Amino acid sequence: MRRLACLVPLLLAGCGTTLDGTARAVRNGLGLGDGEPDRLAIAQAESGDEDEGSTTLRLALGRRQATATLIQQLGERRMWRAPGGVVVQTDGARVVATAGLPQTVMATRFDGPDPLEDPRALLGRSVEARRLVDLGTPGRDPATMRFGVAFDCRLRGFRTEDERGILVEETCRATGMRRATNQFWADARTNRVGFAEQWVGPGLAPLALDFEPE
To answer: 203 in helix, strand or coil?
Structure first.
């Protein structure tokens, strides 16, 4: 199973930069301006003080990493919060809403069941799915919001080199956007996803999630 630790070398190149300088550079590069703080920089700097025994999720977006703590759960739907106001809501392994990122997923709705609920059933076959996504920016400016963006997706499962592993690849297309590719690594014994990389907004790198951080 892949782990976020493989991304650590990418972080080392920026370790000599001050937090304020890095945050300012990232804000400017993402077009956030001085009014919106770089919450990912804050989350990365302040992660590591989680309560012992708490359920955590390890996140990485580009060169930023952070640890989010489970704050709410209703069945398979969970809400995770990292320092600085970064929040990710998942349904199973699927990211369905975010807050505190340069682009935000406000809501996700599926036409029918999500095929990712059963990774083993995707082995050797392709399954189509359609979902509607509401998008916005951290400031919740109505002018930046887009409602009901339709994603047509195709999912397919593969055996990994580890016979106990399943890789689910999902390719999605939406009008006016670049094609998005999501990847989910599941354990064939439990049929649960332990690591994922998925699209969380236009112009952003895939968000990596480690559901089983060491």
So the answer is: coil
Q: Sign (positive/negative) of CA torsion 84, 87, 93, 95?
A: negative
CA dist., res. 196 & res. 168, Å (int): 9
User: What gap in Å lies between CA 212 and CA 109, rounded to an integer?
Assistant: 26
Q: Which two tokens stand for residue 170?
A: 């999902």
What 3-state DSSP class applies to 45?
helix
- Contact indicator for 109, 132 with CB cutoff of 8 Å: yes
47 band by pLDDT with thresholds 50, 70 and 90: confident
Using one digit for the tens of pLDDT, what is the confidence trace for 197-214? 999 999 999 999 999 887
Whether 148 shows a pLDDT value over 80: the answer reads yes
Record the tokens describing residue 12, joined without a space.
Answer: 């080392």
Q: Facing residues of 67 across strands?
A: 58
- Segment 75-127, tens digit of pLDDT: 999 999 999 889 999 999 999 999 999 899 999 999 999 999 999 999 999 99
Taking alpha carbons only, the member of 92, 84, 102, 79 closest to residue 41 is 84
| Angle between helix 39-46 and 19-29 (nearest 10) | 150
Residue 77: both structure tokens together = 């739907």
- Per residue in 51-75, is it b (16+ CB within 10 Å) or e — as a string? eeeeebbbbbbebbbbbbbeeeeee
